Structure formats: structure tokens, C-alpha cells
């Protein structure tokens, strides 16, 4: 998804942004905050020997957290990259950009990259945080899809519980014939 429901603002009076936007006007909706995602696998082990490799796994983890909360990459309104090796981040910016597009598409929210001396996990070279806003209409759409899914599940349960009853309109689901 390369488009965002929010309004990107890049004033002509500022330098052209490369890999980020200057500002974003956010539509009302549900706020999702994703905290420091590093390159940890589900078993807790940090993977990747380079900033680019760790950025790849950390961004995959961030997108997974977004989706688990009902958001998509296009809902991100702010992202921050923390790295213990800003030099390596700069040198590998082309690779990092390709990794970013693979996970996030060609949508670039306001972003900040910050060089730090240390991260909580001593093996981590990168940590990512973001804020996303699921627009109200998208949140309503998710709610309607969840309600529709529940109705389908109820119908499937009824059919599985008593398939003969479902064929005879005079018999209520869950009841047996006399």
C-alpha cells in the first residue's frame, strides 16, 4: 500500500525530502503506538550482523506489530530509527531504502534517524518506533468486516451442529426433529 489516507505536506520552501515527508496532517481515528522494535526473532535472539540486516528484521517486526493492532504501513504518521552506528546507516542508505520499500511501500511518513550510544539489547544495532492512526472510516470498515466474519462463523457453527435442521425452515437451529 503506497498511499496514505492522511495528507502529506512538503512545502516548496523546504528542501526536497528524500525517504521521508516534512509533515503530515492526520485524519481522526484510532491511535496505535509501536514501541522499540529490534531485530529479535520470536525466540528472542537478535539476528543480523549489519545495520541493514537488523533494519530489515526490525522493520518486519514493526509491520507485524502494526497489523496485529489493525493498522497498515500506510497508516504510519511518524517513525523514528535509532541506531548505534549512524555511519553504517548512512553508508548503507541505498540498501536500507530498498528494505524499507519492501516492507512499507513507497509511502514515506515524517521520519527521524537518531544516532545513539547504546540500546537496551547490547546486540541490537537498530531500534524502530512509530505512531500510526487508523482513520475512523477504516476503523469502521474493520469493525464491519469483523461483524461479517462473526455472522459467517455463527452460520458455519449452526450448519456443523445440526445440518438437517438448517435444511428444514420449520426447525430452529440447535433443535432436533421430534
UniProtKB/TrEMBL annotation:
Residues 154-178 are annotated as: Disordered. InterPro entries: RutC-like_sf, YjgF/YER057c/UK114. SUPFAM superfamilies: YjgF-like. GO terms for molecular function: hydrolase activity. It holds the Pfam family Ribonuc_L-PSP. Its EC number is 3.5.-.-. Gene3D superfamilies: RutC-like. Signal peptide: none annotated. Keywords: Hydrolase. It comes from the Bacteria. This is RidA family protein. It comes from Nocardiopsis tropica.
Amino acid at each position: 500500500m503506497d498511499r496514505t489516507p492522511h495528507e502529506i505536506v512538503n512545502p516548496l520552501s523546504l528542501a526536497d525530502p528524500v525517504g521521508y515527508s516534512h509533515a503530515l496532517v492526520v485524519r481522526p481515528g484510532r491511535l496505535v503506538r509501536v514501541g522499540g522494535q529490534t531485530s529479535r526473532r520470536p525466540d528472542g535472539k537478535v539476528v543480523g550482523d549489519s545495520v541493514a540486516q537488523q533494519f530489515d528484521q526490525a522493520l518486519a517486526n514493526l509491520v507485524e506489530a502494526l497489523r496485529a493492532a489493525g493498522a497498515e504501513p500506510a497508516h504510519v504518521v511518524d517513525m523514528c530509527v535509532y541506531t548505534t552506528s549512524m555511519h553504517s546507516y548512512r553508508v548503507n542508505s541505498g540498501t536500507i531504502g530498498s528494505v524499507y520499500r519492501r516492507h512499507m511501500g513507497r509511502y514515506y511518513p515524517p521520519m527521524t534517524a537518531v544516532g545513539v550510544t547504546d540500546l537496551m539489547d547490547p546486540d541490537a544495532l537498530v531500534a524502530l518506533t512509530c505512531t500510526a492512526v487508523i482513520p475512523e472510516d477504516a476503523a469502521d470498515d474493520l469493525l464491519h468486516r469483523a461483524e461479517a466474519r462473526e455472522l459467517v462463523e455463527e452460520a458455519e457453527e449452526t450448519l456443523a451442529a445440526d445440518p438437517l435442521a438448517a435444511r428444514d425452515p420449520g426447525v430452529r437451529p440447535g433443535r432436533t426433529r421430534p
